Amino acid sequence: MIFLRILLVLALAYVGICVLLYLFQSRLIFFPGPPGARSPRDAGLAFEEVWLSPDGGGRVHAWFVPAPDARGAVVFCHGNAGTIENRLETLAILHRLRLTALIFDYRGYGRSEGRPSEANTYADAQAAWRHLTDHRGIAPDRILLWGRSLGGAVAVELAARHAPAGLVVESSFTSVPDLAAHAVPIWLPTRLLCRHVYDSAAKVAKLTCPKLFIHSPEDDVIPFEYGERLFAAAAPPKRFVRIRGDHNQGYRESGRAYLDPVKAFLTEVLGP
Questions:
Q1: In this structure, which topology does domain 2-270 adopt according to CATH?
Q2: 266: closest CA among 56, 22, 100?
Q3: Nearest CA to 252 among 138, 42, 90, 25?
Q4: In this predicted structure, what is the pLDDT of residue 82?
């Protein structure tokens, strides 16, 4: 009897852990930052504040940062933590690359309303695309999609819906179930429990636009092998760039090893 009771307690504990993982996994994926007081003006950039209206309701906060003599435009999808206020350095880089940028906060991040989810992040990016094409009148073949970390999966989904000039996927992954299987103990059925999938590997295999993948072997959040797997799954044309530095500092630490391949890619897809 004692043995059976122990087995029952262990079984209930196991089921309880699975239920908690299923119900609260959003808290393990999304880490929204609160509204702040910074803006592109703090980086010396002119900008327009924009409110997007995604499918599903709510308002999404965004910045439109025009570049003088722009060679094209970019929808930038940031990672799972913080807000657009933490991406001012990235906006400055895009500006130097002569890219007019539209950067937005997912629902539940910063000043954006609602709650984040896989479906909502996709819809938020779709609203950003509509703003550039419908409101700004920018042709799809002049728009680059760029995503970093979780934003890479969002950008991949947006590229699957449209025909952009090109796609940049930086420090991203194949799918959430793949990452979960890597991070969570093997005795948990993580793949079955994942409500958020972000299956980028399946999508990039069908994308015909030019693609640039960037990842660092020193990435401490998303292992380098997942960047390699994502690249391997992608249909051509495609390029892979190996940078250095950790997950959040790689683009800063790599210098020309990061910027030179990006510039070459931009010349390829947008012209000199």
A1: Rossmann fold (3.40.50)
A2: 100
A3: 90
A4: 95
Q: Is the pLDDT of residue 22 over 70?
A: no
Interatomic CA distance for residues 108 and 98, integer angstroms:
30
Phi-psi region of 133 (alpha: psi -120 to 50; beta: other; left: phi over 0): alpha
Residues labelled catalytic: 149, 219, 247
| 237-255: average pLDDT | 93
pTM for this predicted structure:
0.91
Instruction: Please check the confidence at residue 3 and state whether its pLDDT lies above 70.
Output: no
Percent of the chain with pLDDT over 90: 74
CB–CB of 171/222 below 8 Å?
yes
Distance CA 166, CA 14 (A): 45
CA–CA dist 116, 122 (Å, integer): 10
Sequence spans of domains, the chain: 2-270
Burial of 198 (0-12, 13-18, 19+ CB in 10 A): buried
pLDDT interval class at 9 (50, 70, 90)? very low
Residue with tokens 């630490």: 253
Residues 36-68: b if buried by 16+ CB within 10 A, e if exposed:
eeebbeebebebeebebebeeebebbbbbbbbe
Question: Residue 71 in 3-state DSSP?
Answer: coil
The mean pLDDT value of the chain amounts to: 89
Question: Where in 53-152 does DSSP place strands (E)?
Answer: 60-65, 72-77, 81-82, 99-104, 143-148
